[in-house]
Amino acid sequence: MRKLKNVLLVSALALSAVTATVTIAETVDVEGGTWSYGYTTGINAYSDYYHSYNYHGSRVKNRNNGDTNTANAESGVWSKAWIWDVWDPATFYYSSDGGY
Q1: Distance, first Cα to last Cα, the chain
Q2: Residue 73: left (phi > 0), alpha (psi -120 to 50), or beta?
Q3: pLDDT 10s per residue in the chain (100 long)?
Q4: Would you identify the CATH topology of the domain 22-95?
Q5: Planar angle of CA 58, 68, 37, nearest 5 degrees
Q6: Closest CA to 74 of 94, 93, 98
Q7: Rounded to whole angstroms, how far apart are CA atoms 78 and 1?
Q8: How far apart are CA 100 and CA 66, in angstroms?
Q9: Which residues contact 25 (CB under 8 A, 6 or more apart)?
Q10: 9 burial class (0-12, 13-18, 19+ CB within 10 angstroms)?
Q11: What is the pLDDT of residues 9-21, one digit of tens each?
Q12: What would the 3-class secondary structure string for the chain be?
């Protein structure tokens, strides 16, 4: 019976790992805008920034291989930068006055 419980537990954990969507993210108000950054579903990293009256930008960089993406946007529009990032650490940036 104990072996059956272990098999059922392992099966349940495997199923939840396959069906789960993992998001590790932060959203903060900075320099007159809103910055959202983090990881989604374990496969990408993103940095999004919104500013209502300045041209602005966001950037995300993979710290292991240097892969970088930059996005700039007009006032009132989100800048959205993202990279494929399977479990690598990333660094996140925003620019509130002029973009990148």
Answers
A1: 61
A2: beta
A3: 444 333 333 333 333 444 445 678 999 999 999 999 999 986 899 999 999 999 999 999 999 999 999 999 999 999 999 999 888 999 999 999 988 8
A4: Immunoglobulin-like (2.60.40)
A5: 40
A6: 98
A7: 55
A8: 17
A9: 36, 37, 38, 39, 40
A10: exposed
A11: 333 333 344 444 5
A12: CHHHHHHHHHHHHHHHHHHCCCEEEEEEEECCEEEEEEEECCCEEEEEEEECCCCEEEEEEECCCCCEEEEEECCCCCEEEEEECCCCCEEEEEECCCCC
pLDDT per position as a tens digit, 59-74: 999 999 999 999 999 9
Token readout for 68 is 């970088």
Structure tokens at 53: 């009256």
Structure tokens, 96: 């509130």
Residue whose structure tokens are 């009256």:
53
